[in-house]
Amino acid sequence: MKQIEIRKPSVQSLFIKMRFNDKEISTGTGFIVESSVGHIFFTNRHNLTGRNNDTGKILSQKTAAIPNNILIGYNSKGESEEYLWIEENILEEDGTPLWFEHPTLKGKADFVALKLTKLPDGKIHSYDFRETGPDISCGPAGSVSVVGFPFGIKAGGLPIWVTGFIASEMDVDFEDLPLFLIDCRCRKGLSGSPVIVHASNGLVNMKDSSVLHFKAPITKFLGIYSGRVNEESDLGKVWKASALLELVESIENL
């Protein structure tokens, strides 16, 4: 039997369904993060509110509904679409959100964290914001991948790697928020996807001006994708890993 080689980021991105009770509203992407208080699930705030994060407009024009739970599809084998679906409530009975927002940006930040109450048996493929990968030199025109489920599309149960380029200076905040831009043909369903630099082997430039030679795949986590700047543009917003870590640390310090 032919051995299948699967890159780790392909099992770190998770397919999610936003639902009102048992009615599906939309689909998206999320991922799990390590913390001192357990496994935390990250996705976009607009995925869980069901509203445009800037305007407050309801996103699902077809149903006019907002979600009160999500289904997370775990695929530990990484070889089929036979997911183990686990439901997580995202609202209290009185409508109070169960998710956590950034400690200072609050609802301005289009990402949230949800403490997971149930986990599948077996290995959890998570990210660690304190160890985001080699200190690679990243900047405008550098290649990045957004790993998620555009339009709910999967390849053998695994996410799609949509590749583009960094479009703004990484050390400069876009719109005075911890954001940078990418030039990438991202579409619905990729909201909540990890944005990474990934290389199979070869040479990469490091921030300290040295060159790293590597023979095995390397990955650098950069942030979470949250949508395009407008519907006519391929410019997308990415919330920086440093801001995501601030949210994790605020939860750990509660």
Outline of this structure?
This protein is mainly β and 254 residues long.
Show the helix and strand layout:
Layout: H1 9-12, E1 13-20, E2 23-33, E3 40-43, H2 45-49, E4 69-74, E5 84-89, E6 112-115, E7 143-148, E8 160-166, E9 179-183, E10 194-199, E11 202-205, E12 211-214, E13 218-228, E14 235-240, H3 241-252
Antiparallel strand pairs: 1-2, 1-4, 2-3, 3-6, 4-5, 7-8, 7-10, 8-9, 9-14, 10-13, 11-12, 13-14
Describe this structure in words.
Strand 11 (202-205) and strand 12 form a beta hairpin. The protein contains three helices and 14 strands. It folds into two domains: 9-126, Beta Barrel (Thrombin, subunit H), CATH 2.40.10.10; 143-240, Thrombin, subunit H (Beta Barrel). It has 254 residues and is mainly beta. The chain has helices at 9-12, 45-49, 241-252, and strands spanning 13-20, 23-33, 40-43, 69-74, 84-89, 112-115, 143-148, 160-166, 179-183, 194-199, 202-205, 211-214, 218-228, 235-240.
Strand order of the largest sheet: 5-4-1-2-3-6
**Low-pLDDT runs:** none
- Please, what is the average pLDDT? 93
CATH superfamily of the largest domain: Trypsin-like serine proteases
Number of helices: 3
Structural class: mainly beta
Shape: globular
Alpha-carbon distance between the two ends? 50 Å
Strand content bin: 25-35%
Gyration radius over CA: 18 Å
In quaternary terms, these chains amount to single chain
Measured as a percent range, the helix fraction is under 10%
Q: How many domains make up the 3D coordinates?
A: 2
Keyphrases for this structure?
14 strands; single chain; Thrombin, subunit H; 254 residues; mainly beta; six-stranded antiparallel sheet; 3 helices; six-stranded antiparallel β-barrel
